[in-house]
Design brief:
Elements lengths: L3 H10 L2 H6 L5 E3 L2 E4 L11 E4 L4 E4 L5 E2 L1 H9 L3 H11 L13 H30 L2 H9 L4 H6 L3 E3 L16 H5 L3 E4 L7 E4 L4 E7 L5 E8 L7 E3 L15 H11 L2 E4 L2 H9 L5 E3 L7 H8 L4 E7 L2 H14 L8 E7 L5 H8 L1 H9 L2 E2 H9 L8 H17 L4 H13 L4 H8 L23 H12 L9 H9 L6 H12 L6 H11 L4 H8 L6 H30 L4 H30 L1
Parallel strand pairs: 12-13, 12-14, 14-15
Antiparallel strand pairs: 1-2, 2-3, 3-4, 4-5, 6-9, 7-8, 9-10, 10-11, 15-16
Helix pairs in contact: 1-22, 3-4, 11-12, 13-14, 15-16, 16-17, 17-18, 19-21, 19-24, 20-24, 24-25
């Protein structure tokens, strides 16, 4: 059994727009994406995908679910298989139930992660402060044509020469977080005492930030001719090179405006291109481009352009990028490869030939299909049977890595023409998978449970939309709501129990997936929420308090009416009536205060 916490973590990393977009052509429509439903025949789009709720819903046939549910319905995968498929695409390993960390260990891991993050942030501030007084470092950056404004935007810094300058930033230089974050190296040679020293010394510092803007690692460039030219942070619990891209946080808006992302080979390429009018550039971190890199970029744009030097090393890097792109290549994606002259990098090319010339290079970059065909036929000899067979041999694994699509079919046809075969022979020889025929979504089973009362339904909808509010539901509030519900609040209690199992920061998609697995009772309200605007957390909080308060007032009034109708005037009854009246007045005052705060907001 897969732990619920893993499902929640997975769905927080997966982008459902990317998952559904592999199979359905989606277009932006307001806050959501729209397309033709793959589960029933329709001519006008009624299929919507919500990037905020991470859920899809068809207003025509009623099909809906998370990324997991979509793969199950569309591809016919089982629950576990769908989870493994999604996890593989984002570099996660599916654990088994027995692998779940105990609460104490989980808290320890979270505390360590926080300590590492704080260490990186403090070091980043220190390096930026050091750059202000480092004339040699500023002279170098100015020589590369960078302004103070661009240095500030990318938070560039300087690690001074010397072995333990970070002592000035960290009162406790022996803190374990300094070693675990990669800021400090610790050695114990010849059985002597442990020695610590700064990893980065006399280098321009490039902070690497995740998509939230948090510093998770550094790249340091040497100022003189020393080696290595670039030194990167080691992999840590915060930082995995194969998953991160330098400059992506800073480039997100520019990528949307330009309509494409430019993938380069180094830190300085990114910063210099931003200075020269190409802020949509990012870079891999001293490692080959990976499928996770490609997937991250495709969440930002459908158009990727990889820029490489024209030398042998650049060609090898381009080939690795091609391999990373193939699993994500499809009819609605554009992936191109730009090869500059061997004597130029993007920075020097723009400075020599100008922005218009570089824009032309980008526009005329080689499409993935052409690069693939060039690679498989690179050994030449296509005039011989052996040469054509060798090209087919090289092409087999590449085409097998691609999803079935119109693009793959076009490449198959071109390859067949090159090798004097037919597309059908290529597909049979390579054992290429056929396009998946989507299954029709079966109508959801009807719930056998009675529909919740209006007030209970309102609270359930609020908790579905903002699961984090469940932490504010006291036992008394639940009891008050249950008292006015037709089945004793069974649905509400089930919802709260489900949210409780999800730990901290539960999200809508993960919660809906958990509820879907337990039956159809919540399907209707989940579907309704998908068609509505996003709930503001504070508004939802006030509405929840108001709903609980209304239930309490209803119960108080009912008891007051019952006692009054009894005609009893015993001291106990009179005391209880006074108590109920005071409670009723306090609830009214709370309602007035909430109304006033809402009006002020």
């Amino acid at each position: 059994m897969i732990p619920a916490s893993f499902i929640q973590d997975l769905l927080s990393r997966v982008d459902i727009v990317d998952v559904v977009g592999r199979y359905v052509q989606l277009k932006k429509g307001g806050a959501n994406y729209m397309g033709l439903c793959p589960f029933h025949n329709e001519k006008s789009p009624s299929f919507t995908v919500s990037p905020t709720k991470q859920f899809y819903h068809c207003f025509g046939c009623g099909a809906h679910g998370s990324a997991i549910g979509f793969l199950m319905e569309y591809s016919g995968l089982g629950y576990v298989e769908a989870i493994k498929d999604l996890a593989q695409n984002v570099g996660m390993v599916v654990p088994q139930q027995e692998d779940r960390l105990p609460p104490g260990k989980r808290a320890e891991v979270q505390a360590k992660s926080l300590a590492l993050s704080e260490a990186m942030s403090r070091a980043n501030v220190f390096y930026q402060q050091q750059l202000r007084g480092a004339q040699n470092a500023k002279t170098y950056l100015q020589g590369r044509g960078l302004t103070g404004e661009i240095a500030l935007r990318f938070q560039l810094g300087y690690a001074p020469s010397g072995w333990d300058n970070l002592r000035a930033a960290f009162p406790d230089y022996e803190d374990a977080a300094l070693v675990e974050s990669g800021l400090v190296i610790e050695r114990n040679e010849d059985g002597g005492p442990r020695k610590r020293y700064d990893r980065f010394r006399d280098r321009i510092m490039f902070p690497i930030r995740n998509t939230k803007g948090q510093v998770i690692a550094f790249g340091g460039r040497v100022l003189d001719g020393g080696e290595p030219k670039y030194l990167n942070s080691p992999e840590t619990p915060l930082f995995q090179k194969g998953s991160e891209l330098y400059g992506l946080f800073e480039a997100r808006q520019a990528i949307r405006e330009a309509g494409y992302v430019l993938v380069t080979e180094g830190y300085m390429d990114v910063v210099a291109l931003a200075q020269l009018g190409f802020p949509q550039a990012v870079a891999t971190l001293g490692t080959a481009c990976t499928p996770v890199h490609v997937q991250k970029l495709l969440r930002q744009t459908d158009n990727l352009v990889f820029s490489f030097d024209g030398d042998a090393a650049g060609r090898r890097a381009a080939r690795r990028a091609l391999d990373a792109c193939l699993p994500h290549a499809g009819d609605a994606k554009s992936m191109k490869f730009l090869f500059l002259p061997s004597e130029h990098d993007p920075d020097s090319y723009v400075r020599e030939y100008g922005t218009e010339a570089f824009e032309t290079q980008i526009r005329d970059a080689m499409p993935l299909s052409q690069f693939l065909l060039n690679e498989v036929s690179a050994e030449g000899e296509m005039h011989t049977a052996e040469g054509r067979a060798r090209a087919q041999f090289h092409a087999k694994s590449l085409l097998q890595a691609m999803p079935a699509s119109g693009l793959r079919l076009q490449i198959v046809r071109s390859l067949a023409q090159m090798t004097q075969t037919t597309p059908a022979e290529i597909e049979a020889l390579f054992e290429l998978s056929k396009p998946v025929t989507p299954r029709r979504a079966a109508p959801p089973p009807r719930s056998s449970r009675a529909a919740p009362a209006d007030m209970e339904k309102k609270v359930i909808r609020l908790l579905l939309a903002q699961p984090a509010l469940a932490a504010e539901m006291s036992a008394g509030a639940v009891d008050a709501l249950a008292a006015v519900a037709p089945d004793g609040g069974a649905m509400l209690r089930q919802l709260l129990e489900t949210i409780e199992t999800m730990g901290t920061s539960p999200n809508f998609a993960a919660l809906a997936e958990q509820l879907r697995a337990s039956g159809p009772d919540f399907d209707g309200m989940i579907a309704e929420l998908l068609g509505e605007a996003e709930y503001e957390p504070e508004v939802a909080r006030l509405e929840l308090r108001g709903a609980v308060r209304q239930c309490r007032m209803k119960l108080v009034k009912a008891e007051m009416d019952r006692l009054t109708a009894s005609g009893s005037t015993t001291p106990e009854v009179l005391a209880r009536l006074r108590e109920l009246w005071n409670l009723h007045e306090r609830l009214k005052q709370q309602a007035a205060a909430d109304t006033a705060s809402t009006g002020a907001a």
